[in-house]
Amino acid sequence: MDNPSVNKPLNLGIAGLGTVGIGVLRLLQNNQKTITNRAGRPIRIHAVNAKNRHKNRNIDLTTFKWYEDPLDLATDPDIDVVVELIGGTNGAAYELVCEAIKNKKAVVTANKALIALHGNELAKMAASQNVPLLFEAAVAGGIPIIKTIKEALAADRLIEIGGILNGTCNYMLTTMTRTGRGFEDILKETQQLGYAEADPSTDIDGLDAAHKLAILASLGFGYTFNFKDIFVEGIRNISPHDIHYAQELGYTIKLVGMAQYHSENKLELRVHPALLPQSSPLARVNGVINAIRTKGEFSGYLMLEGAGAGEGPTATAVCADIIDIARGNTIPMWGTDWNELRPATLVPNSDFNKAYYIRLIVEDKPGVVADIATIFKENNVSLRSLLQHKNHMTTDSENTVPIVLVTHKNRESSLLKSLKAIYDLPAILEKPIIIRIEEP
Ligand SMILES: NC(=O)C1=CN([C@@H]2O[C@H](COP(=O)(O)OP(=O)(O)OC[C@H]3O[C@@H](n4cnc5c(N)ncnc54)[C@H](O)[C@@H]3O)[C@@H](O)[C@H]2O)C=CC1
Ligand SMILES: N[C@@H](CC=O)C(=O)O
Ligand code: NA
């Protein structure tokens, strides 16, 4: 087949020279010959942009044109593809992507926040200008999950997608589990490794995982929904004590992002810490590694695991998109026309139906356990186990004791109602800790 663009170089304009941007420059330089062969044409960096031209990045930028304003990349007639690696949803990144599309440039971005919040609007713009907009790096860095859903699973209807979507949280929880160290202590170390978002609260409070989950759900199920309706809870309240008790019960604590198809126009999307049975495949995914499992009506279960963040893996995903554009792959952004996506509502957490881990700090005196059990009974919450632990959590009182409860599957509204009443008991000394249990 004749391809008019064979051997014509593909010219890139790259905005953002941080962890991912520098990774892309290095990868394109190191593997230039292989990439040219596989792309079928040379791929050249024409111009770059970042906030600070003079920062030492240990890489030679003198052969590229430098723009002070990222929007100049969108209007430069010599640029074919704008690569947005700035991050964030407002301001520079959004404007650059819109301007690039308006100027009929292909766009590659690693920006999950942008795609999660403005994806459908951008898909519509890209379709109207007939340009590709690719974002493999935006979900789970180097794991080729976007391509897998869009291409390999294109024939199937997915009913579940989820897993471990944030490398920073997974690294932190893994290190807390291995060392018994506390949350704050480990946070700084994680930031230095280059995995965390510019504002680490985006990672720790679950927002980054929610961005990725929203993209996976739109792509995999074919729906749009209100991003704010995703249930999101981060890992700030996870203590080494809960990690320890969970281990005693045969579980590991991970931050999970789960999307489930419930019925026509109804989806369940949630991000929260969860107790996973130690024998489950996700429980064994440690460190900065991410893992995503899909369940399709015909394909069944499929799990992909790999580096969800970091310079090399993320750059590989960005460059794969660039190579796709060079090859002329023009699959629409959501794998289907943007106007094929239907609106869905999301299940509120009060309607979740899960098993729960609960930790209470109680005054050790007769009748407390009976009072707790009565409240659960009144609210129709069924318990699976109750363990009273020797107190190694607090030093202030010998009469204080942790109680760890595990429930069967219950409606979350009933559980929350019970816990509110339990917290009102005078013998309950701290706000109850609740962690959902994710069982296969
Ligand atoms: N770091 C990682 O492992 C991963 C990051 N991502 C995504 O990739 C994107 C980039 O992330 P990082 O490289 O980690 O960020 P970073 O903070 O290391 O780099 C951001 C770059 O953008 C530039 N920049 C910021 N504001 C700008 C503006 N107004 N105009 C021009 N340039 C501006 C900065 O100078 C810097 O060069 C984000 O969307 C992030 O979510 C995706 C997957 C993994
Ligand atoms: N901050 C993210 C980086 C990539 O998406 C993470 O920790 O997973
Ligand atoms: Na990816």
From TrEMBL:
| The organism's place on the tree of life at top rank | Bacteria
Q: What is its EC number?
A: 1.1.1.3
**Coiled-coil boundaries:** none
Which keywords has UniProt assigned to this entry? Amino-acid biosynthesis, Methionine biosynthesis, NADP, Oxidoreductase, Threonine biosynthesis
Q: Which GO terms of type biological process are on file?
A: methionine biosynthetic process; threonine biosynthetic process
- Residues at the active site: 212
Pathway(s) per entry: Amino-acid biosynthesis; L-threonine biosynthesis; L-threonine from L-aspartate: step 3/5; Amino-acid biosynthesis; L-methionine biosynthesis via de novo pathway; L-homoserine from L-aspartate: step 3/3
**Do the record's keywords include Heme?**
no
> Keyword Oxidoreductase, does the record have it?
yes
Bilayer-spanning residue ranges: none
Q: What residues does NADPH bind to?
A: 112
Q: Where, by residue number, does L-homoserine bind?
A: 197
Identify the residues that the record assigns to the ACT domain, covering every copy. 357-436
What Gene3D superfamilies is this protein classified in? 3.30.70.260, Dihydrodipicolinate Reductase, domain 2, NAD(P)-binding Rossmann-like Domain
- GO MF, one example: NADP binding
Name one matching Pfam family: Homoserine_dh
NCBIfam families according to UniProt: PRK06349.1
Family assignment from sequence similarity: Belongs to the homoserine dehydrogenase family.
**The protein's name in its UniProt record:** Homoserine dehydrogenase
- Look up and give the organism this protein is from: Commensalibacter melissae
